[in-house]
Amino acid sequence: MNSPQEHRRLIPIRSAYELPEPGIRDELVRTGRGTQMGELLRRYWHPVGLASDATDTPRQIRVLGEDLILFRTGEGEAGLLHPRCAHRGTSLYYGKVEQDGIRCCYHGWKFGPTGECLEQPCEPGGGSRIGRMLQPAYPVAERYGLVWAYMGPPERQPVLPRFEPFEDLAEGEFVEADDQSIGGGGPVVVDCNWFQHYENVVDPWHVLVLHGTFSGVQFTDAMLRAPTISFETTDKGVKVTSLRTLDDGSVFRRVTEACMPTWRVVPNPRVGQYARVESIGFVLPIDDTHFRIYTVARVRQPGELTGFRSRQNGKLWSELSEDEHRRFPGDYEAQKSQGDITWHGHENLATSDRGIVLLRRLVQAQVKAVEEGRDPAGVRFDPADDLVRFEAGNFLDAAAPEAS
Question: Domains of the chain: which residue ranges?
């Protein structure tokens, strides 16, 4: 009988020298204008900042690979403009926000929040193209403490959704928004591709390994029980249902949804109560190698969202030492270490990755829909049909009665 050492010597070695060139599925990860995913994402509204980010000081932001200027006029209207002034190209970042618009620092041309030229002070008679010269801009709207932007074809602009968890509030609840990338497990601006995080929403098995052993017990004992898991494609995305039988025979039913275009509808993993989902994370691809998560939630105390911490002794990611990052990795370490953009061609998917497969198929189907001139999943054009409902939440189902 061979010893373990002799047995290992009989196993063929796969030499890393022979690894093929990395293959990346661009249709899933590239978000710039003209890319397949970029055109898909531009059919939806995305949060581009907190409402408080739009002020009388021009703010540079980057969304889907585009640099933009966010501001708020003295009249209170938010605007999102292309940074290069339509006159000579000077950045409006150096502009001055006034009562009704933003004025370029170079020759004083002033543009309203939707891009219309209001003044051309160096031109004879105050300018001959007032009202006809337009600064490129994107439509914005405000809801739930966030500024939202639509960056797609004007003729296909959908209504801005309302979300049922934030519309039907219990007594004492109110809506709070956060921009600190809750759920990302890392820095506020996460330095890897957004899709590596988005897929994590439909990967329930990593909870047992990453969050239950390597990171320490981050959540509750109930979350450490091995679940029975099912996956389902819905009209909005992919739904994951995890069933865990508790000591009293009752069943802890946890439903998570990854919804188009980038929504993470994830119940609180600390399971403080059994109820419908209380928060939604909106993943914003900044560019192909950076993203940020804006979160909206029902809360009862100001700052309740910001106070959510699940790393060692309640630390923030930035407060962990390098040794703690290595010994107690979390979502960020697991996803960032795949690379700035993961190598899809080197993956070996298994049965536990069914959610990943379904999500990729769903997204590819929406990419194809846009390419064929159809509307992707979830977009709505009727203002009377703007309410989005979810199945996600933590629920407790009674134990089945014993047979007599």
Answer: 52-141, 161-397
